[in-house]
Amino acid sequence: MKIYREGDKSKAVCGTDGLTTTTFALRDVPFDDGKGVAQNILVAVCDRCGAVVATPPQSTPAIKAAYDRATISIEANLPSVYTDALDLAAYRIDPGLTTEFRKPLLMYYINRFAADRALSRQLADSLDETRAFFEGSPKTGRGSARRRLSMKITPTMSRELETVVEVTALNKTDVIKSVIGCIHKDIVAPDKPKGLKTLRMLAAVAS
Ligand SMILES: [Zn+2]
Q1: Separation of 58 CA from ligand 1 center, angstroms?
Q2: What is the CATH number of the domain that holds 50?
Q3: 45-73 average pLDDT score
Q4: 104 shares a domain with 76
Q5: Which of 11, 41, 99, 104 pairs with 153 at a CA distance of 20 to 30 A?
């Protein structure tokens, strides 16, 4: 791949001028969704009208980083046993982890579900089982304490969560419940936790 510098010349198609010569320069680039700009990005500028007409691959990571700096808050009000299950899973992965690991652990799973629609559909199927296990019957009065799970996530993570919400036709809180049920089944319940090696690597980079 070619690396470009400020002042380099190239050619690109401009919306106004058609095929045109361009000059690379630093500009503020609006995000695709229009919600903000990435500042000081190397782009190809049309020599005729000054519009930004192309973005070289080397600028993509900086644009993505700027986009993901905009955070989205998600909140779920859950029976406290759900967050306890997340924390117990974290403890099992590495006893040195803190509640800070809730987010990377959840998002790691949500990323996997977002990438696999068939796997996501199992989440919808297992929600009742998860609920029965964690929440039991209302008669017993067990697990009535609730805790707020609130996290700041990146727009990229938010899109993945939206994908799982769409595939499962569950609301966000139920997706989170069902994912925690899955984490419990993979990591907390078995004698040998599933995917421990990968999860320890995740813990090493996330904490
Ligand atoms: Zn132009």
Answers
A1: 22
A2: 3.10.20
A3: 92
A4: yes
A5: 41
- Beta strands (DSSP E) in the chain are 9-14, 18-30, 37-46, 52-54, 72-79, 146-153
Q: How far is the CA of 17 from the centre of ligand 1 (A)?
A: 5
Residue range 63-79, pLDDT digits in tens: 988 888 878 899 999 99
- Cα angle vertex 8, ends 34, 67, to 5°? 20
The token pair that represents 78 in the structure block? 């859950």
Both 43 and 130 in one domain: the answer is no
CA of 9 to the centre of ligand 1 (A): 14
Last residue of a domain, one of 69, 87, 108: 69
Q: Quick one: 115 and 64 in the same domain?
A: no
Q: Which residues are within 5 Å of ligand 1 (an ion), measured at CB?
A: 14, 16-17, 46, 48-49, 51
32 and 127 inside one domain: no
> Are residues 21 and 85 both part of a single domain?
no
What are 165-192's pLDDT values in tens digits? 999 999 999 999 999 999 999 999 999 9
User: Rounded to the nearest whole angstrom, what is the distance from the C-alpha of residue 65 to the centroid of ligand 1?
Assistant: 27
Tell how far the Cα of 51 is from the centroid of ligand 1, in angstroms: 6
pLDDT mean over 148-176: 94
Q: How many structural domains compose the chain? A: 2
What is the CA(27)–ligand 1 centre distance, in A? 15
Distance 44 CA to ligand 1 centre (A): 11
DSSP per residue, 38-65: EEEEEEEEETTT--EEE--GGGHHHHHH
Structure tokens at 145: 């304490």
